[in-house]
Amino acid sequence: MILFASNPRADVKPLAKDLLGRFGGIAALLSADPEALASAGLGLAGIAALKAVREAALRLMRSELQERPVVGSWDKLVEYCTAYIAPRQGRGIPHPVPRPQERADQARAAAARNDRPHAGLPA
Asked: How distant, in Å, are the alpha carbons of 72, 85, 104 from that of 100?
């Protein structure tokens, strides 16, 4: 539907399927660099349409986040970082951030491998 607005006289379904397959999904497609989209066969109107949809989605997500406490949970913190920080830097969060319990579990596992207790961690 988005691509049809940029080229109403052509069948855009094959192009849409190719783009989704090439970029791995709608999120990656909407976040792709304009140069990558152009090399995949999109014109300026198509690129502009995809970027407009991405911007609208980000603004919607930001407005929803502003209506409630953001750091009430670990998932909300990651959501906040994705919505506010990553777009300004032009990339996503590079890797999943371990939750506090996961970090404690990782520290316990490392201590067990070393056969010595880790200071500050409950047994």
From this structure: 14, 21, 6
pTM of the model: 0.52
User: Do residues 32 and 54 touch, judged by C-beta distance below 8 A?
Assistant: no
Question: Per-residue pLDDT averaged across 108-114, rounded?
Answer: 70
**What is the CB-side half-sphere exposure of residue 55 using CA atoms within 13 A?**
6
Domain ranges of the chain: 2-92
Task: Please tell me the distance from the alpha carbon of residue 118 to that of residue 123, in angstroms, as a whole number.
Answer: 9
- What is the C-alpha to C-alpha distance for residues 117 and 108, in angstroms, rounded to an integer? 8
Residue 81 is predicted with a pLDDT of: 77
Enclosing H/E stretch for 38:
helix 34-39
pLDDT at res. 5? 66
* 44/51 Cα distance (integer angstroms): 10
Under a CB-based contact definition with an 8 Å cutoff, are residues 91 and 85 in contact? Answer: no
